[in-house]
Specification:
single chain; alpha/beta; 18 helices; 12 strands; globular
Length: 537
Amino acid sequence: MARDTPAAALLDGGGARKSASFGIRFANYLVNEGPKHIVTALWIAAQIAYYVISWIQLETSVELTGIRAIIKEGLPTARAAANLINLNCAILLFTVCRNLISMVRTTFLNKFIPFDKNITFHIVIAWCLVFWSYIHCVAHYFNYLRVEQALQPVVTSQLLSWWSGPGLSGQVITLAFFLMVTSAVESVRRKYFEIFWFTHHLFIVFFGGCLMHGAFCFIKSDPAPGRDVCRGGPTFWKWWVLSAVAYLAERILREVRGRRKTYVSKVVQHPSKVVEVQIKKPSAKTEAGQYIFLCCPEIALYEWHPFTLTSSPNEDFISVHIRVAGDWTTAFAKRLGCRFGKEDKDLPPPTSLPFVMVDGPYGSASEDVFDYEASILVGAGIGVTPFASILKTVWYRLTTKELRRLKKVYFFWVCRDKDCFEWFQDLLMTLEEEDIDHFLEINTYLTAALKVDEMKNIIINDMEGTRDALTGLRSPTFYGRPAWDAIFQRIRKTHPGTDIGVFYCGPKALSGVLHKMSNKWSDSGMGTRFFYGKENF
């Protein structure tokens, strides 16, 4: 009877609404955050479970009674941690096999596993290795001390730590790993890329040491007829060999592909220290939104730097726009004949263009633009480069009637320097003039304050509201930062019940804002979801 009363019905309805609300919130969570969080959580849970199982097995093994009597709980603690080091090393190299990742990201698996976050997962695995290595090392230091207490003065902890096979190899492994991790911290990697690049190649020392580390049979089982006291010998190679072969094949492919016929066909110096480089490489087959690695042996033989393509697959060349900011880009631009400032005026012009090597192309999140009915493209400064390639391809597919699912593109370009808009001015004007069925909406934003004389010049050159004085486009330039809440709200209202792709390339701060907006304005109950993707090299 109680369920028939109005009050009970009201409460029941409220509970249903609350339950539905939770379901919608969870569905919204699965749009952008769910896959990466679930994969990471499963990986951590698997490690904890494997550690517990290993610890129990080692603690209860009847074959290890003798050594366990000496080093006690240090045995399962150290060896279980070693098993987790093996597990993480088994996956670590797969996360940097770019060709493999570019291939599998085009499969259905990409819906469940965020392959575009491969570098992020690489970092997660690295920190897991730091954690398990710390446990392994500390446990073994206590083990060495207990062995010394049991066997002194014949054996000392210093001897075991520094001059025994497992001790010395462990010190080498730890030092190499420490240098790799500390030089890969973002603040160091971005400011001193060369240090990061060369130090990270200590992975050869690291893995070489790991292969030898378990060969010295420090943990022995109790002697018995027909029993192998070394318990099968080293096991690291069994875990690592598959990823090692995959990575070796990857590196060989990169070297072979990078040395195929390639030459620079054209160089254009743009405002705000940006250089456009057009490269002819007949063997390169590209897709819109991809990126390449570029090497100039004259500048640095072993340095490969990533750049997003600004050319369309329909052009007979590949092009990149390079912001001249660091040592390598400055040296490369000067070698191409570009001159910046008074200090470069006396430099003689080059008599020839340099030889370059191109590795790639590789897939990125921006490739998925054509998988949505509506896409939002946001470039900040030089971060606009992948969208130049995409917009060219959009225009080509529109004119040839090859565009299928994509129906609307919202393009946002946010710059601090007004001269930056000249980089792709001709492209944007062409796209705007030939816009078919209002397919493309262009929004340019200038965030830096203008000087008084610049403002007067804009007013004087304003073409009576028909053309923007800064960009020459019919679309006006907005001054200040975009009001993202209002923008996302408008787009959601325009495209109800639609999956919308949000693609960004540029500084980290704006990425966080767009990621937050994509989550905030996704509403799985209404059917409108914003899928966020960011360029990751």
